[in-house]
User: Fold this.
Amino acid sequence: MSDEPIELIFKTATKVSQYKAIYDHNLDAFTDSPDFKWDIDEIKKEVKDGWKLYSAHVEDMIIAALFLKLEGKKLLTKNTGTKMSHQGSGYSHKIKEFFEKSAKEMKAKKIYHYCRIDNFRMYSLNESHGYVKTTKKLDNGLVVEWEKLL
Assistant:
């Protein structure tokens, strides 16, 4: 058996039925997601506000949800954690690589990533990918912003 992780596939969700499938498939895993409120109404609100929703798949299982939003030359990003059964396999790094690839394709000059102030796994991941924490805080100081220059 290989130690190489199975390929991570990213799929864009463009219909409410796809949002619901992502929500339903991840309900148990992400209802306590520390980075943002995880319910179908919030997902619809994020998409209405211009965020694109993606699902990250390992084979036929959704292991994470991602949001991307292009504002001028800035790509804004946030995501749920990966499902517990898939943590430690390098998938979070692949999500960061997807953000970076997407930013380059969109000709963004910077990536901004948002996570909760107490999400120390994301702090470490962001730092390992060259992100620097900014002084900007959102959601009453609970969400921090990270910046990466491309």
